[in-house]
Write a structure and sequence with these properties.
The strands form 2 sheets. Strands 4-3-5-10-6-9-7-8 form an 8-stranded mixed β-sheet. Strands 1-2 form a two-stranded antiparallel sheet. Helices cover 40% and strands 21% of the residues. It is built from 11 helices and 10 strands. α1 packs across α3, α1 crosses α4 and α2 crosses α3. α8 links the parallel β7 and β8. With 297 residues, it is α/β, with parallel strands linked by helices. The longest helix has 29 residues.
């Protein structure tokens, strides 16, 4: 019987997670199990198949030719199994699930805080939000839609603009209390918080306003993304240059203030990209309408 010839499902799940994440460690984190458990699953699968699937290196794993070919087939089967399971659960449970991928800062600072608003007006639709800084391949993914930046060049025809990226200089109130920032160059002399993924922003801001260029100094700090840079600004560490939509709440509650009025439009836009298979789905139509309303469009 076919069932006796199938590989163990837990081993297949571990194999796919490792390949998708690029390492044993990250695969184990996604599955919420130990690295040793994942390693045992991979070894068991290789013994079952009678061939080597991957080589482990310090920076991750590299698939063998057999492993790459096997993973393409396995991943496609898992996506099909996931879709069939989701469809049945939705049918039996009377609700629909939309799988949304979004940039990390956008998801954490803009989308997640608004989810209860969406649920209140869209009963029967559940959002499954994941974080990704890459544009999904809808032909090889369970993702239904994604919020991306046009700088990523999604290449999809079904794109809906949400809003342009406008950045503002912000800091904690205590950094400006009793001080005057009459000249833009005054900001240049402060501790500046840089975002590693957007290291060019401060220089763009200086160029736009004719502020003298300066190199990063030992008093400046660097953070991986806007989310961390905003947390550092709230803590009073320094001055951050961040998209305004990410700090709406902090500005409203006075956790952050804008010491000067010098916004910068970066030229980037955020947009919603929808898989062709979901374009006319009623749940997706409702989500798209809600996203546009939230964006003020």
């Amino acid at each position: 019987m076919i069932h006796n010839q199938l590989p163990p499902l837990n081993a297949i799940r571990a194999f796919d997670a490792v390949v998708q994440q690029g390492s044993i460690r990250d695969g184990a984190e996604v599955l919420c199990v130990s690295q040793s458990a994942v390693s045992r699953h991979i070894k068991h699968l290789e013994e079952f198949l009678g061939c080597r699937l991957m080589h482990r290196h310090r920076r991750g794993v590299v698939l063998t030719a057999s492993g790459a070919e096997y993973h393409r087939a396995v991943h496609s089967s898992l996506v099909g199994l996931f879709d069939a399971t989701t469809k049945l659960r939705q049918s039996e449970g009377g609700f629909r699930i939309l799988r949304v991928s979004a940039l990390s800062s956008f998801a954490l600072r803009w989308l997640v805080p608004r989810i209860t608003n969406f649920q209140a007006s869209n009963v029967g639709i559940a959002l499954d939000v994941s974080i990704s800084d890459s544009v999904p391949d809808f032909t090889d993914s369970s993702i239904d839609c994604a919020v991306v930046s046009d700088a990523q060049g999604s290449g999809h025809q079904n794109e809906t603009p949400l809003f342009p990226e406008e950045l503002h200089v912000v800091c904690a109130p205590e950094l400006v209390r009793g001080r005057s920032f009459g000249r833009l160059d005054d900001i240049n002399k402060q501790t500046l918080l840089h975002t590693g993924s957007r290291h060019e922003l401060w220089n763009q801001w200086r160029q736009q306003y004719g502020v003298p260029h300066r190199l990063a100094s030992d008093q400046d700090l660097f953070f991986q993304d806007f989310y961390i840079a905003i947390a550092a600004a709230v803590s009073g560490i320094g001055f951050a240059l961040v998209p305004s939509f990410l700090v709406e709440e902090e500005l409203a509650t006075k956790q952050l203030v804008a010491p000067i009025s010098a916004p910068m439009v970066s030229g980037r836009h955020y947009q919603l990209v929808i898989s062709e298979r979901k374009e006319r789905d009623p749940a997706m139509v409702a989500f798209k309408k809600w996203m546009l309303a939230q964006s003020g469009l």
